[in-house]
Structure formats: structure tokens, C-alpha cells
Amino acid sequence: MELFANQVLAGIATGAIYACMALAVVMIYQAIDHLNFAQGEMAMFSTFMSWQMMQWGVPYWWAFILTVILSFIGGILIERLLFKPLAKAPVLTNVAGFIALFAIVNSVAGLIWDFTIKQYPTPFGSSPFLGSQLISTHQAGMVGVTVLLLAGLYFFFQFTRIGLAMRAAASLPESARLVGINTSWMIALGWGMASAIGAIAGMLIAPVVFLEPNMMGGVLIYGFASAVLGGLSSPLGAVIGGFLVGVFENLAGTYIPGVGNELKLPIALALIITVLVVKPAGLFGRPIVKRV
Amino acid sequence: MTAMLNIKDLRAYYGQVQALHGLSFSLNEGSLTTLLGANGAGKTTTLRAICNMVRSTGAIEFEGKPIGNRSTENVVRLGIAHVPQGRGTFTNMTVEENLQLGAITRGDKKNIVADIERMYDHFPVLKQRYTQQAGTLSGGEQQMLAVARALMLRPRLMLLDEPSFGLAPLVVRDLFRIFSKINREDKVTILVVEQNAQLALELADHAYVIETGRIVMSGNAKDVANNEDVRKSYLGY
Ligand SMILES: Nc1ncnc2c1ncn2[C@@H]1O[C@H](COP(=O)(O)OP(=O)(O)O)[C@@H](O)[C@H]1O
Ligand SMILES: [Mg+2]
Question: Who has the most CB within 10 Å: A66, A128, B116, B139?
Fold first, then answer.
């Protein structure tokens, strides 16, 4: 029972990171109908920037906040310089754009910071959380920061004008322009926010997976699995999908004989394929309500 | 009276296909004008060209300023509200959010709440459903919502693309009565595109008839209504 509870809680902690990555992927997918394969690499690069700042002596939370801001700006710049010009290009051109972005970010990070694995600090410590052996303070911190972030995003999209405008631009661009919304900038804003969310996920998971240019590869695949499970059209679904996948991954690794750590990734891929076959819209992908 | 909207030699293209062939007309400030024509004549294209939603050449002037090179959202920000064919409702948002979106570019936030109340006065049925997803409204209710959303801009000019389409005759009559009221009381200049000409001609003060991308007739709505060709082609008697 203790083992079960432990695995569920640990799953919720990593699930929080998958939820963030899934949310970042869904935000860009909603805006431009493409999956950002480079989302993980962008998050990795952000995490390296924060590490570099800390090497220069910047305190953790200052580095954290600065990195979020810089990642936001970086996301906007990537959209303006690379993907805005590709907006009307065929799907494959866009896919090539994402792969190029992936490769460039990955190798530039390797060039600047090399490929050796680095320790990354946690501001929460790694002692047992509240004296319980079930979960560490860092894991609790991951969940706590994610919950704050999600609550903030919910407030932003539900109760601010700009959040409303972003939702409108994503759901019906033409109608959005007809009420005066600059949809092009809403897409850029979506990129900035996705990039910032990814940065937070990267900085939270770095103490667990360690810092190196390929650190986000596995995480992003789980993020994709979560987004597909929850439904690419549903930000809330993506978040719930993230937590479900986190828990599922841990329980499968513990209880299904022969799965262990090496087979966890194929399980994520199997999950993606199964969902796409059985329920292509995902668990929460909204069937469109329409009456004429 | 001065012309609020002045269009000269408008040509519009869908890829290689030309849909408008040098169309010219103007709207007087404060007028309620109708643009009539058969299916495929180019009515929707004309409205889309005004809002720069289709590639076009020619001169489009609004209140004396050329607007042909402005993006759609910047045309709208001048106070030109466009209720598109098919309504363009944000179906997965609530009725109230749709109304909020209509006012999204306005700086005078204080007045928006009062304006939403005014819309509920015009269209009481929307008030009963303000938390409901707009996609669950009936066709007539969605059309009212589309008109209300456009009015939330506090437009100077409103473009309406076949607002009667698919609605029961009684609903259409209500809707047109509201257009008349908005035109008189709120001083909104209105251009309404219709296939269904009878009501439009009753309410409008000016009418244009369009055929295959050209204006073929223009005049006082009463005169146009009495024209024999128009009666045969568009009124059915
Ligand atoms: N998206 C489009 N692509 C190609 N041709 C179009 C498109 N929309 C309209 N057309 C053509 O342009 C002409 C005018 O259409 P439209 O303005 O929609 O007419 P109306 O609104 O008067 O029914 C028609 O011949 C139509 O076939
Ligand atoms: Mg039409």
C-alpha cells in the first residue's frame, strides 16, 4: 500500500511537468495547427540559461523569473522570425521548420554548454516532505509551482480581455479579426507563453533528470502523449492528461512485470497510438456543438 | 448629405477567378441601404472586399480616407462592424463572452457593461441565455447575437450579410425592425445584403442591384421596388 501511494504521488509530481509540456504544445497547436517538436529543446535551452545565470551568482528565484521573461520574449521572436513567414506554407515546410529549430537549439546548447551532464539545484531541498517518506520536498515543490501556474493561466484566459481575445483568435481567426483582434500578434503571444511555460517545466524537472542538451527528449514525448490523451483541442484535457500519464507511467513501471524503466518510453508511444486509434479527439477533445 | 463610404471600380479575385468587375457605389451617412442580387452575384465578396478579406483593387474610402490597404482588424477598428454570412459566432463561448468580444477593441471599459444591458433590451432572449454556450442557440438567436456582437463595437457603419438566411419570416421581421431602430436611434449607417428583397426594400431608403460582379441598378428603394425587372427577378410578382 505504501509502495502504491508512493508511486501515485511520484507520478503526480512528474505528471505536473508533463502537464506543463502538454499545455505548451496545445497552446501552439491551437494557434497554428502544428505540433511544436522543438518545445522540449526550447525548454532545455531556457533551463541552461537559468543555470548559467546561477553560475554567475544570480540567486535561484531571480534566475527563475529572469529566465521565464527571457523565454517569453524568445518564444515571440521565434514566431516572428521563423514561423510567421511560414504561416501560409505547406504542412511539410512547417514540419521542416520545427525540425530545423530542434536541431539548431540542440546543437547550439551543446556548443555553448557541452554535452556533459550537470547537476541542477532545487530551491525546495530533497528531504522527505512533511516528514513523510512518500514524496520529497522537491516533488511537492514541482506540484506546488505547477498548480500556481495553472491557476494563473486559468485566471488569465477566463477573466482578462487579452485572454479572451487569445481564445477567440485560436477558435475562429476570421471572426476574431472581424471584432478587431490582431490574430497575428495573438499567435506570437501564444508562442511566448508556451515558451515560458516550457521554461518553468524544464527548470522544475532539471534536478530530477539532470541538465544536458537531451534532457527534455523523453519528457516531451510524455508531453505529447498527455496532449493526445487529453485532446489536442483542450488545454484542460492536456493538463489532466499530463497527470494521468505521470501516474500511469509510474504504476506500469512498478506493477507490470517486465516493464521496468527501460520500457516506460515505448509505453508512452503505445498510449499515443492507442488513443489516436480508439478516441482520436482524446478524452476531453470537444465534439463541436452546433445548431443551425 | 456626404458619402460615408465611397467605392470606385472595385475588382476582387479568388485566385485566378475574378468575382467583382469594376463595381462602384456609395453610402450616405445615416442611410439604410440594401444591396440586392441573386446567389453568386458578388454580394458577399463586396462586403469582404470592404474589410480586406479578399484580394481586390480599386478605391475604397471611408469618411474621406482610403482604407484599401488596411488589415481587416484595422478596418474594423475604424468603426466598421461586419456581420458575416454564416454569422461567425464563437460557438464554444458563452453569449456574454461573444458580446464582450464585440467590444474587445474599445478603450471605454466603463460603458461596456451598460452596452451589454442595452443589447439585452434589444434582444431579451439573449439575456435569458447569457451564460449558455452560443453554439446551443437557435439560428435566429445566433443571428441576434451576431448583430448584438457587431453593435458592441459602437460602429459608425454596419455591414450585414444576408441576416435573414434560414430564419422564420416572423423572426426576420423582428430583426429588420431592430435594424431600422438602430439606424434611426443610434445613427448607425447600415448596408444590408439580401437575396430576400421584399423586406429589405420596405425598410431601406436606398437600393443597389448587383449582377455578376457589377452594379446594374441603383436608386431610391421605393423606385427600385417598383421596377418591373426587379419585381420579376427578386420579388416574384
Ligand atoms: N472562396 C471562393 N473561391 C472561389 N470562388 C468564390 C469563392 N467565394 C465566392 N466565389 C465566387 O465569386 C462569385 C461571387 O460570390 P459571392 O460574393 O459569394 O456571391 P453572393 O454573396 O452574391 O451569393 C461567385 O461566382 C462565386 O462562385
Ligand atoms: Mg453571399
Answer: B116
